[in-house]
Sequence to fold (132 residues):
Amino acid sequence: MSKIEEIDSRVKAYLFDIGYHKWYRVHATVNRTWTMTSNIAESLNAVTKYVRDLTDYIHIVIDGVRRYNVCLENKRCSCGQFQLDELLCPHALAALRHRDESFEQYYSPYYTRANLLRTYEIPVNPLSDESK
Fold:
């Protein structure tokens, strides 16, 4: 209280006039800690709301000492194989196994049996050797 009096003696008088219950924590009837904690929690929830929505598709797969970020929604992995070859890499397969989800919707339609058969549907005749 002496520090407050050094700054402005009127403040000390005002605090005594309104009573301890209005300003001193020991005499407070309301626990302000809950209010402050609740506000902090609400602020953190607002900040992390976007991240929580992503967690269904984003996985971190640890392979030995290396870590790989796998995004199933965008079909990307930090190893590069998933997006380059449009085939599931081992890390994406691990993420799908963790989710207990089928892998068919995640690889390119180029690798389906139907497309493979269509590729060889048309006969391809060998060309003659022009050097002879």
Notes: The two ends are 109 Å apart (CA to CA). Residues 1-34 form one domain. Residues 32-54 form the longest helix (23 residues).
